[in-house]
Amino acid sequence: MINYFTIINTGGSTLIEVINLTKQYGQHKAIDNISFTVEKGEILGFLGPNGAGKSTTMNIITGYISATEGTVKVDGYDILEQPEEVKKRIGYLPELPPLYMEMTVEEYLKFVCHIKKVKPQKQKEVLGKVMNAVKITDMRKRLIKNLSKGYRQRVGLAQAMIGEPQVLILDEPTVGLDPKQIIEIRNVIKSLGKDHTIILSSHILSEVSAVCDRVLIINKGKIVAIDTPENLAKRLSQSNKMLLRIKASKDKALNIVKGVKSVKTAEITGSREPNTIDIVVEGKEGLDIREDLFYAFKSTDYPILMMKSLDLTLEEIFLQVTTQEQAIDHESISISEENDAQHEETDGQQREDGEDVSNN
Fold first, then answer.
1. What is the mean pLDDT of the chain?
2. Which of 26, 105, 241, 285 is the most exposed place for a label (fewest CB within 10 A)?
């Protein structure tokens, strides 16, 4: 099995430890022996197809459901042995925010303060701080049922922040929002990352790439990749590709590129500017082709107007690691089916031989 599992030390101290975590429902393993850590001040993006185990893992970390095996530690406290201490340190926004529609924003947040045992004399200060952080101060007297979905998500974020938790766990915080609301919530999350450690689950890959320090990709209950988006792109890319824009004719530019020894392939992709040509250049394995390309054109009258690395996008990374895992599973199934067929053939032959002996 191809393994892209890597723990990156961000330089901070570990705040969350997920240790050999398994959750089983009957014969089905929603998550299967996963382990990872999250550092203080880090924003970790949680990615995976539907049913991959993202929400299950988040629910176990929050203490909402228990694990079949393994455990979680938050700030050194074990979720099984000291659940209250763990829950004090976590603010949770589920995919559907737990809102009471007939309450005003302020009434609801006061209710949450009461649940989280915020001292009455501190409630005004706490409410002012969280409402300002998510920019809903002007909505404090509005009924929640009259708010847009984007503002309801902000109220959900505010309730997660009450109690000054060290960790915020956000499950699909932008699901169902329009593009403008997504950008607004994304900016709020980035600002919250200055004072909190965040685990963010999302299907919007560009959002994770823009907001998160690291990405964890889970598929069929197993971690298939964990690293920074940049490092994943470098490690998963099987080639060294550059996009060049040359101020020259197609034939002249292509001849110069093909004359560079470190170049493996070169392909014209069109022209985006007058009197220029765009070429995708692939270098030979393990070679950095940038300097060679620069010096090849330096001695000509054809300047390089653009040289851009073509790293994998997060979408391509996601598809690559999940597709490979599925291919491995299909291969295993095929092997298993072939073995079963061989056993059936052998058993059938033995039965036939037995019948022949008995007949004789």
1. 83
2. 26
Q: Does 3.50.50.60 match the CATH number of domain 238-309? A: no
Domain boundaries, the chain: 4-235, 238-309
pLDDT, tens only, 226-266:
988 777 766 665 557 889 999 999 999 999 999 999 999 89
Identify the CATH number of the domain defined by range 4-235: 3.40.50.300
**pLDDT digit string, tens, across residues 104-159:** 999 999 999 999 999 999 999 999 999 999 999 999 999 999 999 999 999 999 99
